[in-house]
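Example: Na(+)-translocating NADH-quinone reductase subunit B.
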Amino acid sequence: MGLRNFFDRIEPNFVKGGKYERYFPIYEMVESFLFTPKTVTTAAPHARSYVDMKRIMTYVVIATVPCILFGMYNVGLQTNMAIAEFGASGWRAWIIETLGIGFNANNALANVLHGALYFLPIYIVTLAAGGFWEVLFATIRRHEVNEGFLVTSMLYTLILPASTPLWQVALGISFGVVIGKEVFGGTGKNFLNPALVGRAFLYFAYPAYMSGDTIWTPVDGYSGATALAVTASEGVSQLATYGITWMDAFVGTIQGSFGETSTIACLIGLAFLLTTRIANYRMVLGCLLGMIAFSSLLNWIGSDTNPAFATPWYWHLVIGGYAFGLVFMVTEPVSGSHTNAGRWIYGALIGFMVVMIRVINPAFPEGMMLAILFGNVFAPLIDYFVVQANIRRRARRNA
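Written out as structure tokens, the predicted fold is:
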């Protein structure tokens, strides 16, 4: 109880009238992260729950742990395999050689530690830059630091390539937090996913750093196409010539952003979110059904000029960022639909859009990011029509 007593003792300095009143958001951020807020009701007839917003956000971060661990392993694996051919250089190589870890791609620990040297700097810069804006806006507005950034920072890091320059990392998260959320009032008032807004900004502002064959494995001179790029340009049947099987894509030992390559890691996170009821199953099933239905339709239609038409739904599931977006972005409650019927429609719209962008638009083989942002824009309209339909139905029933 010593830590609890410490916070109780210094609290008068931060509340209204205290000499550090202006910095109450910072005090509250740390205190409520460590302890359940004292504002939770404990007596009838009030509805009460000890699973506050910070705990919900913590659950989402816990759900990303399999993606984080496998992402570090896979980045280390891909990098160590490339180093065997092109050699190593830079401060990361110096650290690994100094510690005697080595660049053996068959050593799982060496892969994880090497991958961590790429993951941690990006995550630390994300926390520093994004956290600065969060605290700044909270201090100016004199309200609590919004806990949503805990999730935003992790998701943003996991959807970036390992080779992303750190200055771009800071610029992207700043854009996502300020333009994607804070200008609308902060957490709970944004209609777009901030992590995706930051990633989309980087993609369109610095496309050479966010797409192509040279960005996924951070070794100078190395070039290799992702499974999604091969599927879009040559067809899914040609993946075997690149040594990529469906199981490779499902497990995640292929090139891609940190947290997006492993479908099985994403599904472990999904199981946790569904069990804790943080994620709504209607959005998940709607997105799956929309993707399966439209990709199957395109398979049936076929095309002599576009090989991506032949991509079956089970390949769409495991390549690109579909699985990661399905689990952690589609189910995001703030920017998604809030009515039960609307959640089905919202999920199906994203599932439809991701296939349409991937297949019909050859210039943009990865469609999940834009599909989710498109769904975010239409979520309020979907809910509006659902509510109006319910009003009309009840009016007819009671007429």
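Residues 159 and 257 are 5 Å apart (CA to CA).
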